[in-house]
Amino acid sequence: MGYYAKEPAYHHGQLPRVGILLLNLGTPDAPTAAALRPYLKQFLSDRRVVEIPRAIWWFILNGIILPLRPRKSAEKYAQVWTEQGSPLLVYATRQTEQLSKLLASKVSTPVSVALGMSYGSPSVASALDKLRAEGCDRILVMPLYPQYAASSTASALDAVWRLLLRTRNVPAIRSLRHYHDHPAYITALADSVREYWSTHGRPDKLVMSFHGVPRRSLDLGDPYHCECHKTGRLLAEALGLEKDQYMVCFQSRFGKAEWLKPYLAATLESLGKQKLARVDVICPGFSSDCLETLEEIAMEGKATFLQNGGGSFHYIPALNVGTGWMEALSQIVLGELQGWVSADADPETAYHEAQLSRLRAKALGASD
Ligand SMILES: C=CC1=C(C)c2cc3[nH]c(cc4nc(cc5[nH]c(cc1n2)c(C)c5CCC(=O)O)C(CCC(=O)O)=C4C)c(C)c3C=C
Ligand SMILES: [Fe+2]
Ligand SMILES: [Fe+2]
């Protein structure tokens, strides 16, 4: 095998096609220790995720984490696993399908949408191969993380750059860095909260919980902390909340180092001890519900609050495939596709454009 990956067949007169490469974190193939081990190994071997010196980390990962964590994590995954599989993969797959349909109804340029996962499957390589096989010569890479973090966004993008290094016929690439303050995203979040409150009533406090990262990454220049706070402030403003009616917290601490604070678990414990009548938790940083929301928040977080004397606990679901979010996602994507797609979805125009392209290609024959 040569240095470069095999190229998809090239056809003269192929219509230009735009691709959207949606990226997310990934999930194990099954809720078992055997499936967790390779997933965690791939995830936790990523230098963007763990920045401890390699030699030291090799011993911790292989000597402590991989022998112990897969079994514990598998038990947690088993509690949220669905008949269709891992919630993260189920939602991300449906988002991919629905975005594809929505874009087809909005633009006349042919657009393909594919899903790739940083860890596990479907891999980023398989998603990029799919888009290129469909003839996409312009690709928008969109990590489904609203707030930029090196450990999530940049590691997802790394996978694409690595593949392109070994690609002969490199497509035009655009990448989306974040959408933490995009009005469409904030509106979708606010609408989902209002809709939830219209049927379940309102809490005393809305806790906005974001996935944590090591505190050190903030000191070293990662903007994640600020972007989470900006999302929190904009969401609170959209909902008309006063400062004492909401707070921003960080969850999912991993390892012994200090992570971004306040920690969600300590916050729920304290709110419980204050005998707060009702707390609602929303996780605006997760585009899909997953282990970290369904188990850590809706189960563990709830137990922590109630066991410490809190009244009632509600978890407000992630945006998932709600119509408001799918519409917002298509708006965010279309904003990034300016100049690449024509917003005219009139099928007649699209048909004539396609015919013209074919005629032009035919006239040029094999000489182009
Ligand atoms: C929202 C963005 C995410 C950031 C930032 C992030 C950073 C980060 N995560 C770990 C360690 C783990 N995370 C795990 C699961 C997990 N993490 C995210 C998102 C972000 N992580 C998601 C969406 C998920 C859920 C995946 C699913 O299948 O549902 C796990 C695996 C589960 C477990 O064993 O606990 C680990 C481990 C670190 C160390 C880190 C930043 C440095
Ligand atoms: Fe994580
Ligand atoms: Fe900050």
UniProtKB/TrEMBL annotation:
<keyword id="KW-0627">Porphyrin biosynthesis</keyword>
<comment type="similarity">
    <text>Belongs to the ferrochelatase family.</text>
</comment>
<keyword id="KW-0479">Metal-binding</keyword>
<dbReference type="GO" id="GO:0005737">
    <property type="term" value="C:cytoplasm"/>
</dbReference>
<dbReference type="GO" id="GO:0006783">
    <property type="term" value="P:heme biosynthetic process"/>
</dbReference>
<dbReference type="InterPro" id="IPR019772">
    <property type="entry name" value="Ferrochelatase_AS"/>
</dbReference>
<keyword id="KW-0408">Iron</keyword>
<dbReference type="InterPro" id="IPR033644">
    <property type="entry name" value="Ferrochelatase_C"/>
</dbReference>
<dbReference type="InterPro" id="IPR001015">
    <property type="entry name" value="Ferrochelatase"/>
</dbReference>
<dbReference type="GO" id="GO:0004325">
    <property type="term" value="F:ferrochelatase activity"/>
</dbReference>
<keyword id="KW-0963">Cytoplasm</keyword>
<keyword id="KW-0350">Heme biosynthesis</keyword>
<keyword id="KW-0456">Lyase</keyword>
<comment type="function">
    <text>Catalyzes the ferrous insertion into protoporphyrin IX.</text>
</comment>
<feature type="binding site">
    <location>
        <position position="292"/>
    </location>
    <ligand>
        <name>Fe(2+)</name>
    </ligand>
</feature>
<dbReference type="Pfam" id="PF00762">
    <property type="entry name" value="Ferrochelatase"/>
</dbReference>
<comment type="pathway">
    <text>Porphyrin-containing compound metabolism; protoheme biosynthesis; protoheme from protoporphyrin-IX: step 1/1.</text>
</comment>
<dbReference type="GO" id="GO:0046872">
    <property type="term" value="F:metal ion binding"/>
</dbReference>
<feature type="binding site">
    <location>
        <position position="211"/>
    </location>
    <ligand>
        <name>Fe(2+)</name>
    </ligand>
</feature>
<dbReference type="InterPro" id="IPR033659">
    <property type="entry name" value="Ferrochelatase_N"/>
</dbReference>
<protein>
    <recommendedName>
        <fullName>Ferrochelatase</fullName>
        <ecNumber>4.98.1.1</ecNumber>
    </recommendedName>
</protein>
